[in-house]
Amino acid sequence: MPSIPRRRLVRCLAASAMLAAAAAWGRASDFPARPVTLLVPFSAGGATDGIVRHLADLAGRALGQPVIVDNKPGAGGVLGANQLVHSAPDGYTLSILPETVFRLPHLQKMQFDPLRDFSYVIHLSGYALCIATRRDAPWTDWAAVVADAKARPGQISYGTTGMNSTMHLTVEKMAQLSGIELNHVPYKGESEIIAALMGGHIDLGITAGSIVPLVDDGKARVLVSRHRSDVVGCAQPSERSARRIAQPIPSVLASDATPRYASMASADRQMIGDATPVLWTARRVPRWPDVPTLRDIGLDMVATSPFGIAGPRNLPPAVVKTLHDAFRKALDAPVTQALLERLNQESAYLDSAAYAAFARERFEAARRQVARMSPSPGQTRHQ
Q1: 90 in the same domain as 180
Q2: Per DSSP, what are the bridge partners of residue 38?
Q3: Which one of 258, 287, 304 terminates a domain?
Q4: Tens digit of pLDDT for each residue in 99-126?
Q5: What CATH number is associated with residue 219?
Q6: Residues near 119 by Cβ (< 8 Å), separated by ≥ 6?
Q7: Are residues 138 and 212 in the same domain?
Q8: Is 144 among the domain residues?
Q9: How far is residue 56's CA from residue 49's CA, in Å, rounded to a whole number?
Q10: Which domain does 48 fall in, by range?
Q11: 280-315 pLDDT per residue, tens
């Protein structure tokens, strides 16, 4: 078989590479030519799901193609990230990335590396979380929960979105600092937590904006209250390690928090019904000025749980820009700002480059937290 001259072979390979690059550019310039899938790693019906569906609808209008939300609940919120690793870098599969994406790789083997495997598109907001109780619960503040938990170790239950989630780690740190033992019950999303709370299956629910209507209707209460407010404890949390696998808790959460990226959790200042919250933010929020922060009740903690949108690594820059611009337009829309306000959240916009830098910061902060883990006095039970 005759051999191909070296120079001719090099020219052929170069031409092939140019054709491939041109084809890729053509595909990027035509993007999107079909619907885009946005993975949400939590169950339908929760605050995050509601916000993301709203943004997806507006972004789809800007893109000229629908953005279809696909819920992937479970596994602490990393199933969307897992799927991105196996998706083509064409912009048609995206995922919401919660805080656990940056923490879990320091605790266990994962399918992804958050520093290498994602193309960061846009940072959006942060989860507005709180500790809520039913209206008929015997506790009106965190001090009452602590006193009861010391009398009945491990018998007060609380629900979160899963092991090692921001919800879980923050409550575990609160329990550690308070010298109590609570019973952790993991769920796949906020809607399941609220259903379990209102159905009497758990005592405390760590929730986000979806609890606000129940609070406003007098069906829920936030845990720490002042004056005439029945509010007990909405807030933004930080992280910790899973007790089920006998991992200890980070000794400090506040030092690595980044308050400027946190969304502020709280609800209207009024008599609140069946659920109660404490703010996990750096300062009190305008809508609940009488609700104390964790620091106000003697727990030196500030916890945040930001989230944004990413795609598989090596997304063409033109595709990243198209997606970024569509979701930026959706985020800045007055109707979106009004929705965030109703859910006690705020915009925490970062562009693609700033989001990638922020992801590196969060990954490193999580590494330091895991390295600082120290044994706690008690051990939280799990169901």
Answers
A1: no
A2: 69, 94
A3: 304
A4: 889 989 998 999 999 999 999 999 998 7
A5: 3.40.190.10
A6: 89, 310, 311, 312, 313, 314, 315, 320, 352
A7: yes
A8: yes
A9: 10
A10: 33-126+306-369
A11: 555 665 666 666 666 777 777 666 678 999 999 999
| pTM for the full predicted model | 0.70
Instruction: For residue 381, give both structure tokens.
Output: 């039970």
3 state SS for the chain: CCCCCHHHHHHHHHHHHHHHHHHHHHHHHCCCCCCEEEEECCCCCCHHHHHHHHHHHHHHHHHCCCEEEEECCCHHHCHHHHHHHCCCCCCCEEEEECCHHHHHHHCCCCCCCCCCCEEEEEEEEECCEEEEEECCCCCCCHHHHHHHHHHCCCCCEEEECCCCCHHHHHHHHHHHHHCCCCEEEECCCHHHHHHHHHCCCCCEEEECHHHHHHHHCCCEEECCCCCCCCCCCEECCCCCCCCCCCCCEECCCHHHCCHHHCCCCCCCCCCCCCCCCCECCCCCECCECCCCECCCCCCCCCCCCEEEEEEECCCCHHHHHHHHHHHHHHHHCHHHHHHHHHCCCCCCCECHHHHHHHHHHHHHHHHHHHHCEECCCCCCEEC
Number of domains in the chain: 2
Give the integer Cα–Cα distance in Å for 93 and 89: 8
Greater model confidence, 258 or 206: 206
Strands 36-40 and 67-71: parallel
State how far the Cα of 94 lies from the Cα of 87, in Å rounded to an integer: 9
Contact 94, 310 (CB under 8 A): yes
* Burial (CB count <10 Å: 0-12, 13-18, 19+), residue 244: middle
Same domain, 170 and 267: yes
